[in-house]
Design goal:
Blueprint (H helix, E strand, L loop, with lengths): L1 E5 L5 H9 L7 H5 L5 E6 L2 E9 L3 E9 L2 H17 L4 E7 L3 H9 L3 E11 L5 E9 L17 E5 L5 H11 L5 H14 L4 E6 L4 E11 L2 E9 L8 H15 L4 E7 L3 H9 L3 E6 L12 E7 L1
Parallel strand pairs: 4-5, 11-12
Antiparallel strand pairs: 1-2, 2-3, 3-4, 5-7, 6-7, 8-9, 9-10, 10-11, 12-14, 13-14
Helix pairs in contact: 4-8, 5-6
The structure holds coenzyme A.
Length: 304
């Protein structure tokens, strides 16, 4: 059984470990001033997580950390419910920009990237480092399809015109409800100039399992127009290996940067890009005629 309660003075040194792992600049002396605001999760007599928030119109999470994912979700749910019930309209937190693991955990909890704060947080060795701001406007935690890695046999080769039908199959499966011909037509066109940037993955029966399609839209910059893996093949690192091969080919062509956009609510894709070394660049606000659909995009980039 787990219990969420206010921290005790004698627990501060354990709490400091959770806190420092989230924000390296937190010190024991600072923490001790907030002891009656710090919450802890206790399971079978053990401290499993801890957090500190200032609940205001805009709640700020100083730190929120736990030993395992389920405890973190429990703690986050408690804080988010509290924040929105007590009148907050936004919850924000700052983390070191180089902590992709934290950024991914917050993304899974439904936080969005807000911006980068240059040289604004002290590292453990006293150096100023960049931080990023992540924020959230609702208490709900998204349901992200479970990702379980299993090996799958497949090979990768450049797209050819005779693969047109395969692209329709892939596009229908990965983007249900969208026009598959739009993708297929564009891929047919962009692959003519850059076959090595337009790759498909096939299983041993010649069935398409995934594809990645990019073009050099500006000198030395390639834009990934489409990355898709068949539903039944997701979680087998097809996406990762397609991206690796694209990076290898792009580098050989002298391309220095890859860019991609995806819907801000496409959490699996956002987690995929973060895991593969992409950084969030900006949020592309949808044109107002499209506003009824949740169509804002998040743009990511990676230097290769
Ligand atoms: C996004 C997509 C391309 C990922 O392809 P994939 O082959 O299933 O992904 P991989 O197996 O290579 O996963 C690599 C990493 O991405 C992250 N990831 C991928 N899918 C995830 C999911 N559903 N939940 C959480 N993390 C996920 C994980 O960190 C994973 O690393 P791990 O295996 O070490 O946990 C695939 O889900 C897809 O085609 N989705 C539908 C179409 C789409 O949204 N395309 C992108 C739009 S731009």
């Amino acid at each position: 059984m787990s219990k969420i309660r206010i921290a005790k003075e004698e627990e501060l040194s354990k709490i400091l470990v959770f806190a420092k792992n989230y924000r390296p600049d937190i010190e024991l002396s600072w923490l001790s001033k907030w002891v009656n605001k710090i919450v802890v999760v206790e399971k079978n007599g053990r401290l499993m997580g801890s957090a500190l928030c200032s609940f205001e119109e805009e709640t700020f999470i100083h730190f929120m950390n736990a030993e395992d994912w389920d405890t973190l979700v429990e703690l986050a749910k408690y804080l988010l419910d509290n924040a929105f019930e007590t009148g907050s309209t936004k919850v924000r937190t700052f983390i070191p920009a180089n902590r992709i693991d934290l950024q991914m955990s917050l993304t899974k909890l439904g936080f969005e990237y807000e911006g980068r704060l240059r040289k604004s947080m002290l590292n453990v060795d006293g150096k100023l480092i960049d931080a990023i701001s992540m924020c959230k406007w609702t208490p709900d935690i998204p349901k992200i399809p479970k990702h379980v890695f299993e090996p799958l046999g497949f090979h990768i080769r450049p797209y050819r015109s005779e693969d047109y039908g395969k692209i329709l199959e892939l596009s229908r499966d990965a983007f249900p409800g969208e026009d598959p011909f739009e993708d297929a037509e564009l891929i047919e066109e962009i692959s003519r100039d850059n076959p090595e940037l337009n790759l498909i993955a096939l299983d041993k029966n010649g069935r398409i399992v995934g594809g990645i399609f990019a073009w050099e839209w500006a000198p030395k910059n390639a834009w990934i127009y489409l990355l898709a893996v068949l539903h039944s093949a997701q979680g087998h690192h097809v996406g990762t290996l397609l991206l690796k091969k694209l990076e290898e080919n792009a580098r050989r062509k002298g391309i220095l940067r890859l860019q991609v956009d995806t819907n801000v609510n496409n959490f699996p894709a956002i987690l995929f890009y973060l895991k593969n070394g992409f950084e969030f660049e900006y949020r592309e606000i949808a044109a107002s005629k499209l506003k009824r659909k949740d169509t804002d995009d998040a743009v990511f980039s990676k230097s290769i």
